[in-house]
Design a protein that fits this description.
The chain has about 90 residues and is α+β, with helices and mostly antiparallel strands. Helix content is about 20%, strand content about 30%. It contains two helices and five strands. A hairpin with a 2-residue loop joins β3 and β4. The longest helix is centred in the C-terminal third of the chain and has 12 residues. The radius of gyration is 16 Å and the shape is globular.
Length: about 90
């Protein structure tokens, strides 16, 4: 993350489903003050997450999408070489 975060800003995160680890999506989240710790936090799915943890946060959806494709996209050629030629 190379941008400054301010309360009220929206960010885009690559969020991995905790119940299905092979599913990840891009979600919009907000930077808000945690009402308990009074520290800036990532607010996503009605929960506050401390900013001291590692998150893949991006200032635009397009940046998040490019990173998502870099991390999760496997083209047909590479997929076939990973599973012995079966797609």
């Amino acid at each position: 993350m190379t941008f400054m975060l301010s309360a009220g800003e929206s960010v885009f995160v690559i969020y991995r489903n905790p119940h299905t680890q092979n599913v990840a999506t891009i979600q919009e989240a907000q930077i808000l003050q945690d009402p308990i710790s009074h520290q800036p936090a990532l607010f996503l799915y009605d929960h506050y997450y401390p900013l001291d943890m590692d998150y893949a946060m991006y200032s635009t959806y397009e940046e998040a999408e490019a990173a998502y494709e870099d991390y999760f996209y496997v083209d047909e050629y590479n997929a076939s070489s990973l599973d012995g030629g079966h797609v």
